[in-house]
Enoyl reductase (ER) domain-containing protein (Rotaria sordida), 348 residues
Amino acid sequence: MSLEQEIPIKQKCLQWIKVGDKPFQFTDSALVTQPKDLEQNDVLIQVYSAGVNPIDGKMAAENIAQVKLPAVVGYDVSGTIVGIGSSVKDFKIGDDVLGCLTFKRGGGFQQYCVTDESVLIKKSPGVSHEQAASLGVAYLSALDGLQHVRNQIQGKSVFVPGGSGAGHFIVQICKILGASPLIASASKEEGIKLLKETYHCDHVINHAKEDVVAKIQEITVGQGAHIVFDSTYISSSFEKSIRSTANGGSWIVLGKFVQEGSVEEQMCQQQNVKLIHADLGKYSAKSEFEAKRSEFFRQGLKEACEWILQGKLKPYINQQPTIEELETAIEKLRKGQSGFGKVVAKIH
C-alpha cells in the first residue's frame, strides 16, 4: 500500500467558522485534502507541531486577510510531506519540513495542511519539530525589523522590552550579532532568569519594579540605546521605549501600530529617532513584498535552524497544548497570560 493511500479521509482540526467572538470550533471530522487534488505547486503536510501566535486570534477576530470561511488559522508548522503537486521540485514525499504559511492561506491548526512549497524548507534531524514550529511568525517578524539595522548592531547598545515570542528571538539575534550592551526587560522571575542565564543579556530590567527609562540612561551613560525593538503591542511600553532610544538611533515597533500623525511618531521626530515598522503581514498583502517572500522566509528560517544546530539560538517553549486545547491557548495568548517565550501545539 502506498503512503498516499494511507492518508485518512478525516482529521482533527480547529476550524475558523466566523469572524468576531467565539470564532473557532473543534472537530475530529474535517476533510483531508487528498494528494490527487493538490494544485501543481502545493504539498500536503502531516503536521506534528504548530506555533501559536497573537496573529491567530487577531485574524479570527478581524479577518484582516479577507479569507473565505470556513478556514483554518495557524501559520508556523513542522511535519512530514505526504503528498506533492505535479510541479513541486524542491521536496519529495517523506521529507521533514518547516515553514511559515501565508496569512491569506494559513492552515496549520489541522493534522494535514496544504501549502505552496515556496514557504517551506527541509528540516534538519538535529532540529526538533517543536523547535521548528516555534520559528515562523515570531522569528521572521524579529528578522523583518532587524534587517534594517543588522549592519549597525555589532558593538552598539540594544534594548528589547518584554519577553514575547518575537521578543525572545530579537534578544538572541542581537546577542549573536554582537550587541553590546544588550539590555532586556521582563517582570516575572521566569523571564528574568532566562534572559540572564540562558540568553546572557548584559542587563535585565524588572519593568514592574524599576524605572525603565532611568535605568537605560544609567546603563548607557545618558545616551540612550542605539537600537530599541518594541514587540510588546502595549502603548505604555511604546512611550517608555521611545524615550529610552538615543538621539539619532532607531526605534523598531512590531505590528500595525504607530500610524502617521500618532503621538509615538511625533515623539520619534522630536527625539531625532528613526521609526521602523516590522510587519510580516506585508509579505502576504503587498505585491512588491510577495515577490520577495519566498527568499526572505527561506533564508531566514535556514539561518535560524543553523543557529539552533550551533547552539546559538535556543527557542523557549513554555507550553505545548494539544490540538483539542488550542482554542484555550489562543485565548490565553490574546489576554497576555501565556508567559515568556513561545507556545507550540502538538498536532499529531
Summary: The domain at 4-135+284-346 is CATH 3.90.180.10 (Quinone Oxidoreductase; Chain A, domain 1). The chain has a mean pLDDT of 95. The longest strand covers residues 42-52. The chain has two domains: 4-135+284-346, 140-280.
